[in-house]
Specification:
Shape of chain B: globular
Low-confidence stretches of chain B: 157-167
Strand content of chain B: 5-15%
Number of helices of chain C: 18
Number of strands of chain B: 5
Oligomer: heterotrimer
Chains: A alpha+beta (292), B alpha+beta (167), C alpha+beta (797)
Strand order of the largest sheet of chain B: 2-1-5-3-4
CATH topology of the largest domain in chain B: Ubiquitin-like (UB roll)
Helix content of chain C: 25-40%
Shape of chain C: globular
CATH superfamily of the largest domain in chain B: Beta-grasp domain
Number of helices of chain B: 7
Largest interface: B-C, 57 and 55 residues
Helix content of chain B: 25-40%
Distance between the termini of chain B: 50 Å
Order of helices and strands of chain B: EEHEEHEHHHHH
CATH architecture of the largest domain in chain B: Roll
Radius of gyration of chain C: 27 Å
């Protein structure tokens, strides 16, 4: 079996303690949560931290709670918890869509939302989910707490705004009436990373026209929500023609790379097709919420 | 470093290197070789054990991270001399061939049935979808878990479930 | 379940309506497996045992400039570091392969594939061994790699095996069979000729347990005990005697419980030899177990056949002839595990299940800068490739003729009365009733209804496909006069001892990797002697404990060892008759057998059971002249011919027109493996093979980039089906016993792996018919299926 290079291990007891440990051990330390991204990299010895700071005891970061018009999700919330939360599914159905296709049930028992976002893999599904839901990331560090938008949080592939001495603690999602969201992914096999995926979130106005919309892509070379698609949708009544236009815009805006999962033209096609499907489902759900 | 945990109901304490993987701790320090491993990347699920009742891939958990937790391996499935219905089900319905993925499959099945005593076939397939079997083609594993669901008290006993669950 | 049998029963097979040997019983090996008490290679711990790890080449083709092991040797826990130079001194740097080639144990001159073995570290524990790999400095002079087999014979292709004197190209062999002139003549006058290039990509058996060895060399007694993940312990013993120069009587090979083999565990890998060298050098036992990447990147792959197929027929749909040329990529060393006289394995069975006028095939094997291997993954010595080719070609023809593919097959099958049937490439098929199996599968599938449903869905723009395949397998090699592996004739032995209390031990030369030998072979003895299976212990996997034989691969166990076990039991039965005669003071010819008992003809109340006879044999009964005082026997079974299982498969798929994703909705498999022993085990073998088929058809592939980097070096990239990709299998069977096999059994282990890929691909191509698609190469990933819909069968990657 592959085995990580030697390191020292310390278990953080609280967020404050974790921040102290990060400060003490400096750039050669890494935080481990679920570990399903970090440990395989360490086994390949592509990652060789000298100190591993285990934050699995930070139960204070394992929560899903409604706070006014926000849903607050602790960074240590496991994928399984998110998947199984009926409250999350009712407010943000895209989360359950995505969680159902993230890795597999056993990995989901360990993996956390914070770990996924901090890994910032371009094929990582929850980044897109948080993008289109316009989540806020709550980060704590020696200089206190800061709240970033997702565009501020993402810095590119495998890179986020979370500093070496900081910890992502929480994600906040704004709850809006008459909203719906959906995630559509094509994978070669259950548990595989996305060949391509699209997420959409839509809020309808009282008259049934689109009040606000966001479309994001996963693994297709677009690391921010597609503003053009939102602009096309806003103020219009959702229909197939509108979805098709958004799909075309997504295909034009993405910049996928060819790999074993498929060539560029196929992935570009997926941007189009999956955008349409995600929007269609998101709008249906928004309409249902309106009726319900 | 020193770690302590509960394994199959017994408290264990050991001095280990921090990098020791849980699967190696279980197999090589504790000598419980019923837990196997099949890959290095947490893709195959051969190494699944229960941690606080939940299936986890022990090749991707450090032994140090499991300290303080309750671990259950295949050796802890039977109670006394009596097989868990899941173990019996795998024998009844040919849910195993080479036996290598079997401990992980059975532990996931046990966790599923604890949460959902009467899963449908799709729920069983979803539950084991992070675990690869190269021999059986899965249908007999599904049947094995259904056998266990239909016989929650094990073989030879009249279960109320018998009448409720279709084979 | 429906059973069809309208051929005369083989008297040896008993009643065809029932399986033999108590039929569906639980497996004798399961109680230990479900308790986690299986004993696999990595579970072996010997006192003082060290751990080995292999440093592997990061590039595909490079001159080895230098290796510096100083820092690794300085590691406090490192006991030894072995390089190719050390092995040259021991004359162990190169080892013979199973195909009369040699393979580098450690690189001495040149790296020939990415992942090749460069150095071996022996250390106190496995973590230290891994750490020390990083402390070895190797300098390479990188050479241009040869990745594409199609370019292997180009004049400017790099010569991979330049260490072989006089070698100037990458050609391994050219081999052909069939009458070319006759075949060409039939093609020239045929109404219809269609051709198609069919690629069977490189895949990997990837058993859940990787390969490994524990070597324990006892220097005082000169004795080597080698625990190995091997499907063929006796062949390994002989080869180790030849390779390592250790006398064969001083070698014991132990194959413990095996976590799946599928042909991956037939060959002798450098790691096994290195463990032995490590034990000799250190004087302590050495364990070496590969990780998953090592398994996928360096051990025996499967397939990698580029096949140009052509089929000739009349316009009414009578198939006349087949011809093909194959380009076979064997990787850097010709290490395919197959009979010596068959460089393309049993590919020549590509004539399939059809009565042809002529057939011809030629195969060119080439070296490339890829891992060696080729015959593995339940392929029955390349019958997978053969069946895939012919079943794709028949479908291509059906499209051309606008005929239903099931109907076209029915029209061309070899008829029951034509058996034994000599095909055009030298095989004599033992028995078959192909039409019955085909019709049963169509009935189980509801074929007509499916076609109606498909037509309705097409109207609505939905893509549903129905794929048919029919295969004839050829398994159970020998006879030994025709088939050998490195000179060892393909036969298997069995020894049977009935102990005084009537309990029996049967020792066999084949090794289970999950097939349930401990159960099946006990059942065969049970059928023949009337001893219940639970009273029969099956011993296997230890060369000190078992008779010589060639091992388990190519679905050999039941056809060859099954024959051996039946015959050894009959030998015991005949001996029991002599002893019973003495005990009953009756002439043996006056005795009659019924299960488990010899009794006096006409007076069934006077008789002796096998247990009583066993006690008599070991007791004080005066034995007849020439009868030893035991109830033991041994045989080596040299099969007179191979057996030819067959089956009819129907697959139903749904294709998402927007994404190209394929869902296998239903799969109906009707298999005929002759006489059936344990139906539960047979069904399990079929299910497993069908899942392999889904894997190969939809997702499994070992690809390389232009630099020769393996792109499938982990289970993140080498995808294997999960429970979500496969349907609830629907199985049925017919029973057509083999006329020459002692119990009429034919073998089932690889039938479904052989037969299912074409059914799935045919279904996908059928679903895409509205787009004019006639072929899609495996694996039919969403990207490839979508590209096919755009008029491109294979997307550029």
């Amino acid at each position: 079996m592959q085995i990580p290079a030697p390191f020292d291990y310390v278990r953080a007891t609280t967020v404050d303690n974790a921040l102290e440990l990060l400060a003490r051990y400096g750039p050669e330390s890494r935080v481990v949560a679920g570990g399903h991204s970090l440990l395989p990299m360490m086994k390949l010895r592509l990652s060789r931290p000298e100190w591993l700071i285990d934050i699995n005891d930070l139960y204070e970061l394992d929560f899903i709670l409604r706070d006014g018009n926000k849903l607050r999700v602790g960074a240590m919330t496991r994928h399984t918890t998110l998947l199984e939360s009926d409250e999350v599914a009712a407010l943000f159905p895209i989360v359950r869509d995505a969680e159902l296709v993230i890795a597999d049930p056993v990995v989901r028992n360990r993996g956390t939302i914070g770990g996924s976002l901090c890994q910032a893999d371009p094929a990582e599904d929850l980044s897109t989910v948080c993008d289109v839901l316009a989540a806020e990331a709550v980060i704590r560090g020696p200089r206190g707490e800061r709240i970033l938008s997702m565009s501020e949080f993402h810095r590119g592939p495998y890179e986020t705004a979370v500093g070496q001495d900081e910890l992502l603690c929480e994600l906040r999602f704004g709850i809006r009436p008459r909203s719906g969201s959906a995630y559509e992914k094509v994978e070669r096999r259950v548990g595989d990373w996305a060949v391509g995926a699209a997420g959409a979130a839509v809020t309808l106005a009282a008259d049934g026209t689109v009040d606000d919309a966001a479309v994001g892509l996963t693994a297709l070379g677009l690391d921010h929500p597609l503003a053009e698609a939102a602009a096309v949708l806003r103020g219009r009544r959702p229909d197939e023609e509108l979805f098709a236009r958004a799909g075309t815009l997504a295909a034009a805006a993405c910049d996928p790379v060819a790999d074993q999962r498929g060539p560029v033209d196929y992935k570009r096609h997926l941007a189009d097709e999956l955008t349409k499907r995600a929007l269609r489902r998101a709008c249906d759900r928004a309409a249902q919420m309106q009726e319900g | 470093m020193q770690i302590s945990m509960t394994v199959n109901g017994t408290d264990v304490t050991s001095e280990i290197e921090p990098r020791v993987l849980l699967v190696h701790y279980i197999r090589e320090v504790l000598g419980l070789t019923g837990t196997h491993w099949g890959c290095d990347t947490s893709n195959c699920g051969t190494c699944v054990v229960l941690m606080d009742g939940q299936p986890v891939k022990s090749c991707t958990v450090l032994a140090a991270m499991a300290a303080g937790h309750d671990i259950r391996t295949v050796e802890g499935l039977a109670t006394g001399g009596t097989l868990d219905p899941v173990q019996q089900g795998f024998m009844e319905e040919h849910g195993l061939q080479c036996g290598f993925c079997t401990p992980g499959m059975m532990l996931t099945a046990r966790a599923l049935l604890d949460k959902n005593p009467h899963p449908d076939d799709t729920e069983i397939r979803q539950a084991i979808s992070g675990q690869i079997c190269r021999c059986t083609g899965y249908a007999t594993i599904v049947r094995s878990v259904q056998w266990a669901a239909a016989h929650p008290a094990g073989p030879g006993l009249e279960d109320a479930a018998d009448t409720e669950v279709k084979a | 379940m429906t059973v069809i049998h309208d051929r005369p029963s083989n008297p040896a097979a008993g009643d065809e309506d029932r399986p033999i040997g108590y039929g569906r019983i639980q497996r004798k090996e399961d109680p230990r497996f479900v308790r986690g008490q299986g004993h696999y290679l990595d579970d072996i711990v010997l006192p003082g045992m060290l751990h080995g790890a292999i440093l592997r080449a990061p590039v595909a083709h490079a001159r080895l400039v230098s290796i510096d092991t100083t820092n690794a040797l300085a590691h406090p826990k490192v006991v030894a570091v072995i390089t190719g130079k050390d092995l040259l001194g021991l004359k162990l740097a190169w080892a013979p392969t199973l195909s009369a080639d040699v393979q580098a144990v450690l690189v001495t001159d040149k790296v020939r594939f990415q992942g090749q073995e460069v150095a071996f570290v022996v250390a106190e524990d496995r973590y230290a061994a891994r750490d020390a790999l990083e402390l070895i400095d190797v300098e390479y002079d990188v050479l241009p790699p040869l990745v594409d087999a199609r370019k292997a014979l180009d004049p400017d292709a790099p010569v991979i095996r330049d260490e072989i004197e006089g070698r100037t190209d990458n050609r391994i062999f050219d081999w052909e069979i069939g009458d070319k002139a006759e075949t060409d003549a039939v093609f020239a006058s045929a109404d219809v000729v269609v051709s198609q290039e069919v690629v069977y990509p490189r895949v990997h058996p990837a058993p859940m347990e990787t390969c490994g060895a524990v070597a324990d060399f006892d220097a005082v007694n000169g004795r080597l005990t080698l625990y190995e993940t091997t499907q063929a312990p006796h062949v390994h013993r002989t080869l180790f005697a030849i390779v390592a120069g250790i006398p064969e009587h001083k070698i014991r090979i132990v194959s413990p419980d095996i976590g799946g083999g599928f042909g991956n565990k037939v060959g002798i890998y450098p790691g096994y030899i290195l463990a032995v060298v490590g034990s000799i050098v250190s004087g302590r036992p050495v364990k070496w177990v590969e990780d998953r990447s090592e398994n996928l990147m360096s051990t025996s792959f499967a397939r990698d056949y580029i096949m140009q197929g052509e089929i000739a027929a009349t316009k009414e749909g009578k198939i006349l002839a087949l011809r093909t040329h194959v380009l076979a990529d064997h990787g850097a060393f010709n290490a395919t595990a197959q009979p010596t006289k068959n460089p393309a394995g049993f590919f020549s069975i590509f004539t399939g299940s059809y009565d042809l006028l002529a057939a011809h095939c030629s195969v060119t094997g080439v070296y490339t800068n890829k891992a060696p291997g080729g015959v593995a993954y339940a392929c029955s010595f390349r019958v997978t490739e053969a069946v895939y080719l012919v079943e794709r070609m028949v479908d291509v023809l059906a499209r051309k003729l606008n005929m239903d593919p099931a109907e076209l097959r029915l029209k061309n099958f070899i008829k029951p009365e034509q058996f034994p049937y000599a095909n055009k490439t030298g095989w004599v098929y033992d028995s078959g009733n192909y039409e019955a199996a085909m019709r049963l599968s169509m009935q189980l599938a509801g074929y007509e209804d499916l076609r109606r449903e498909q037509a309705e869905k097409r109207e609505r723009g939905e893509l549903m496909g129905i794929g048919v395949s029919f295969f004839t397998e050829v398994v159970g090699a020998g006879p030994r006069k025709h088939f050998d592996i490195v000179g060892l004739g393909m036969a298997d032995g069995a020894e049977l001892r009935v102990h005084p209390t009537g309990k029996a031990v049967v020792r066999i030369s084949v090794q289970s990797q999950g097939q349930g030998h401990e159960t099946t072979f006990a059942q065969i003895v049970a059928e023949e002697l009337g001893i219940p299976p639970e009273d029969i212990e099956v011993v296997h996997g230890d060369t000190d404990q078992t008779p010589f034989g060639l091992g388990t691969y190519g679905s050999r166990s039941t056809p060859v060892s099954g024959g051996a076990v039946a015959l050894v039991a009959r030998k015991v039965r005949e001996k029991a008759k002599l002893i019973a005669g003495a005990m009953l003071e009756t002439r043996p010819e006056d005795l009659e057998w019924e299960k488990g008992r010899w009794f006096v003809k006409g007076d069934p109340s006077v008789g002796k059971t096998i247990a009583e006879i066993a006690m008599g044999a070991h007791g004080t009964v005066a034995l007849p002249e020439g009868v030893d005082g035991n109830l033991d026997a041994e045989v080596t079974y040299d099969p007179p011919n191979l057996t030819f299982p067959f089956g009819a498969y129907i697959c139903v798929v749904d294709v998402d027109p927007g994404t190209g994703q394929v869902k296998v909705r239903r799969f109906i498999a009707v298999d005929d493996c002759g006489t059936r022993i344990n139906p539960m085990i047979i069904e399990g073998q079929v299910h497993g093979g069908l899942t392999d088929g889904v894997g190969m058809a939809l997702m499994e592939i070992i690809e390389f980039d232009e630099a020769g980097n393996c792109l499938a070096g982990s289970f993140m990239d080498y995808l294997i089906p999960t429970a979500m990709e496969v349907p609830d299998w629907e199985t049925g069977f017919t029973v057509t016993p083999s006329p020459h096999h002692p119990i009429g059994a034919k073998g089932i282990g690889e039938s479904a792996t052989v037969g299912s890929p074409p059914a799935i691909v045919n279904a996908i191509v059928d679903a895409l018919a509205p787009f004019g698609v006639t072929h899609v190469d495996m694996p039919c990933t969403p990207a490839r299926v979508w590209a096919a819909m755009q008029g491109r069968a294979r997307p550029p990657i």
